[in-house]
Each structure stands twice: as structure tokens, then as C-alpha cells.
Write a structure and sequence with these properties.
Layout (H helix, E strand, L loop, with lengths): L1 E3 L1 H8 L4 E5 L2 E4 H17 L7 E5 L4 H13 L2 E4 L9 H7 L4 E4 L9 E4 L4 H4 L13 E3 L3 E7 L7 E6 H15 L6 E3 L7 H13 L2 E3 L7 H7 L4 E4 L1 H10 L10 E4 L6 H9 L4 E7 L4 E5 L6 H4 L4 E2 L3 E5 L4 E6 L5 E4 L2 E3 L7 E12 L2 E9 L4 E3 L2 E3 L1 H9 L4 E11 L3 E10 L4 H9 L10 E4 L12 H17 L1
Parallel strand pairs: 2-12, 4-5, 4-6, 6-7, 11-12, 11-13, 13-14, 14-15, 27-28
Antiparallel strand pairs: 1-8, 2-3, 9-10, 10-20, 15-16, 16-17, 18-19, 19-22, 20-21, 22-23, 24-25, 26-27
């Protein structure tokens, strides 16, 4: 259950090939292997061995990638922490995963932890010499626990998803095969490493002998793509929206593939990107499945891009009787960690995602259509309303960039749908007329509100925050 360490394998096969390109220059696979070997020794000198846990709390940079790869080589379990987490909250997160060792810059909040001070680490911050002695062999043990990724899911309470190296490798192999990634490919790493999507970029690149591209701080996405020859990228809806609205989308047209994920992509954005000739791929994935589960193939039609695509290798998926999406396969995580206890998936291997789906036949292929979240459904006047259905209908209206629908309390109907919309022109009456052609009357929003200017602070728009805002706006309207 071991494979040769892919960093070492690439260093021996193509030592001068670029492993990483960033604002500070290029790191070859030979140099990366030396750095990982030195960092491996550094971790062992600090008493860390296979199975021990190491939390990492720092921005994404070369040092971070080296430490992660060193952890994979030694069997140390890496727990990347969100840099948006206040330092004072870090010890509590570490307590939830029974971890005492933290790689970070010093801070008063970290007193009492076993701190690996990255600001003083010559091993991490200084490239080793070419004479640095490296172990004669290096490997990855696929059954070893490898990462702990905190995911809030739909509850808002952080859970630590435990993945093995085998989970990450199986996920990467499926994407490599599907997208034809190999030496010469350059995948942009602009997703944080504390999200499984960021980790997936790193693993698939080193397995394929491809290049990880790091953007410069504050550098527009399309400038990074153009300046560093990016061939592949992983984007969330907000990133695509910003490029289409304020950037130079023509720069993205020169890439081979842009994988869209993180949350549902508004149909209006998909249609706009498709019309511009951007090589986009809609997809479906989750932390528990080590990133991408389905994706649309290259050259997909607009009808296909309205789905989440076909199943990638190494994954299994079926729909329960109520439409819930169930998944399993080699990419399925080991379980949620609570202290030292692991809550494992269902005994037959199927993991209930909480998402609702349906199959669609497009161009002779069976593709997954994600309908929405089970816990987003609400009842209005005795009728079921699935917010994502209304959002998709809004997104198909010309000029509507994105929309989120939430329920608000109503004395007559119990709850009514309300929509937050970003559009080229504010025409709610025209939207109501357009929605009436495809939706039942009770699904049409009772009110439309402009997209909040502060709603883009994170990877996803918070439905909870938008619902609270909608309730306040409705209360204000009733007060007047």
C-alpha cells in the first residue's frame, strides 16, 4: 500500500522541470525534493513521527507546500487551519483534534502549545545546498492518515474530516485522467490549503509531474494566468464573477480547463463565460470525497454545463429514494475526528451528502444535476419550496448575474421566499413575469433585494446571514 514519493520520482525523472512557479521565481523538482528532505529531517528533529498531528497556521507559500509534502513523506497528519481564524480561537480547534503541535509565527495565544516557530526555521526558510544528503528512498503510505480538514458543512459547527493519503491520491488520479494533466501542465493554486480544493491542486500536480502556480499577493487572477502560463485553474463563483465584471476574461480563454466548484455556479455566469469561449467545467464535490466527484467534459455544451457533469474515476454515486445524493469510493474520507475518536461513514460505505440530485441525459451521456440541499427546503402555504430551483430560474433570466433565495416569516403562509439579486438592471417586475413562465406562483419571491455589498467576504455567501438580513428588511417594511 505504498507508492514512490511523487516529488522524488519527478526529481529523478525530470530534475530541472518546474515544480512551483511563484512571485519569487521558479523551484525545480530537484530543489523541491531537497527542501522536502530537509523539512522531513526537521520534523523528526522536533520529535514528530508517523501518526502524530501537526497543525499549520500560515498563508499559502513555498514553505507551507514544503511542510505539507514533508508531512506526507513522514506520515505526520497535517491539519491546515484557516488564516481567517483569530489566533485566540486556534487552541480550541487544536483541542478538538487532540493536537498540541502548531507550525506558525509566535503569538501570545499559542502559549502552552508546542510551537514550531517558522520565522526562525532555517530548514524551512533557507534552501538546502545541493550537497544536502537525502534518504535513498522515499514513499507515501496510502493507508496512512494524512490530513484533517475543518469543514462546517450545513451546521456551521466545524468538523474535522480525516483523509488518508490514499483518498488524496485516488482523487488526484481521477482528475489527472479526466483532464489529461501531465508534465508541462500548470495548475493555479489560488484556493487556500485549509480547503480540500487547495490540497487537491497540490497532490494532483506532484502526482502528474505538473507545476503548481502561486499568485502574487493582491495580483489579479487573470494577470497571474497570463504571466505564468497557467493551463488549468480551480475557481469559485465569486472569482469568476470578479473577472467577468472587472477583469480581462480574454486572458482565461487561453487556458485548457477552468474547474468551477465550491458551490452552485449561477446559470447567468456560466452562460456569460461560455459565450466568451472560456474553457469552463461545472462540477460537484465536497470535502468528504477529497474534492471533485463529477465534472463536465471538455467542450461541453451549455445544456451540459447546466449540470454537474459525469462521474470521475475512483468515485461511486447513486440517488436515494428521496433524491439524496449518496457517494462512496476510494476518495471517501476516513471519517470525522472528535478528539481521538473517528466517526466513520456508514457500514456499507455510502455517505449521505445532504444534497438532492437527479440524472439528466445530455448528448447521450448521463450527467448529475444537483437540485439543492435537503436542509434548505422550506414550506410556504403547505407547499415545498426548494430555494435552488428558484435561484436557477432567476439565473436563466438575461442580465441576472446571481441570486440567493431565503425564507422569511409570514403570518398568512408561514414562510415566503425572498430573493437577493445582482443584475445589470433592477427590473423585479420583469423578473416576476419571467419566473411565472416556469415556476408555480408560490415559488416566486415575495420581494427582491439588491445583492449586499458585504456578501463576498468568504468562499460562499452565507444563507443564514442573508436570511437574517431579509427578516430585518421585512420587519422594517412592516414598521413603515
Amino acid at each position: 500500500m505504498t507508492i514512490p514519493d511523487p516529488v522524488r520520482a519527478a526529481a529523478e525523472a525530470r530534475p530541472a522541470a518546474p515544480a512551483l512557479i511563484g512571485p519569487d521565481g521558479t523551484v525545480t523538482y530537484a530543489d523541491l525534493d531537497r527542501r522536502v528532505s530537509a523539512a522531513t529531517a526537521w520534523l523528526r528533529d522536533h520529535g514528530l513521527a508517523c501518526g502524530d498531528r501537526l497543525a499549520l497556521y500560515r498563508p499559502t507559500d513555498l514553505d507551507y507546500l514544503v511542510l505539507l509534502l514533508a508531512a506526507f513523506r513522514t506520515g505526520v497528519v497535517a491539519a491546515p487551519l484557516s488564516t481567517r481564524t483569530p489566533p485566540a480561537a486556534v487552541p480550541d480547534l487544536l483541542g478538538r483534534i487532540a493536537c498540541r503541535t502548531l507550525a506558525a509565527a509566535p503569538h501570545d495565544a499559542f502559549t502552552g502549545l508546542d510551537l514550531l516557530d517558522l520565522t526562525e526555521s532555517s530548514t524551512v526558510h533557507r534552501p538546502p545546498s545541493t550537497e544536502h544528503r537525502r534518504p535513498s528512498t522515499a514513499s507515501w503510505t496510502l493507508g496512512d492518515p494524512a490530513t484533517l480538514v475543518f469543514t462546517s458543512g450545513s451546521t456551521g459547527t466545524p468538523k474535522a474530516a480525516l483523509h488518508t493519503l490514499g483518498n488524496h491520491v485516488a482523487s488526484a488520479r481521477g482528475v489527472i485522467e479526466f483532464f489529461g494533466l501531465g508534465p508541462g501542465g500548470r495548475w493555479l493554486l489560488d484556493l487556500p490549503l485549509y480547503h480540500v480544493g487547495g490540497l487537491a491542486v497540490l497532490v494532483r500536480c506532484v502526482l502528474a509531474g505538473a507545476t503548481v502556480v502561486l499568485p502574487g499577493e493582491g495580483e489579479p487572477l487573470e494577470e497571474t494566468v497570463a504571466a505564468r502560463g497557467v493551463t488549468h485553474g480551480s475557481l469559485v463563483a465569486t472569482q469568476l464573477l470578479r473577472v467577468l465584471r472587472d477583469g480581462r476574461p480574454e486572458a482565461l480563454a487561453k487556458t485548457r480547463a477552468l474547474l468551477l466548484g465550491g458551490s452552485a455556479i449561477p446559470p447567468g455566469l456560466v452562460a456569460e463565460a461560455h459565450a466568451l469561449g472560456l474553457p469552463i467545467h461545472t462540477s460537484y464535490g465536497m470535502s468528504e470525497m477529497a474534492s471533485t466527484v463529477t465534472a463536465t467534459p471538455p467542450g461541453a455544451t451549455l445544456d451540459a454545463l447546466a449540470t454537474s457533469g459525469v462521474l470521475l474515476p475512483g468515485r461511486e454515486l447513486r440517488l436515494a429514494d428521496d433524491g439524496e445524493i449518496l457517494v462512496r469510493g476510494a476518495t471517501l474520507f476516513a471519517g470525522y475526528l472528535d478528539g481521538d475518536r473517528v466517526e466513520r461513514p456508514d457500514r456499507d460505505g455510502w455517505f449521505p451528502t445532504g444534497d438532492l440530485g437527479a440524472w439528466a441525459e445530455v448528448g447521450g451521456e448521463r450527467m448529475l444535476r444537483v437540485v439543492g440541499r435537503k436542509d434548505h427546503l422550506f414550506i410556504s402555504g403547505g407547499e415545498n419550496v426548494q430555494p435552488e430551483e428558484v435561484e436557477a430560474a432567476l439565473g436563466r433570466i438575461e442580465g441576472v448575474r446571481r441570486a440567493v433565495v431565503v425564507p422569511v416569516a409570514d403570518a398568512e403562509f408561514g414562510q415566503r421566499p425572498v430573493a437577493f439579486v445582482e443584475a445589470e438592471a433592477w427590473t423585479p417586475e420583469a423578473w416576476r413575469e419571467a419566473l411565472a413562465e416556469s415556476l408555480a406562483r408560490f415559488k416566486i419571491p415575495a420581494a427582491f433585494h439588491p445583492w449586499p455589498p458585504d456578501a463576498d467576504g468568504g468562499m460562499k455567501v452565507s444563507r443564514t446571514a442573508l436570511r437574517a438580513r431579509a427578516e430585518a428588511l421585512c420587519a422594517g417594511a412592516r414598521g413603515r
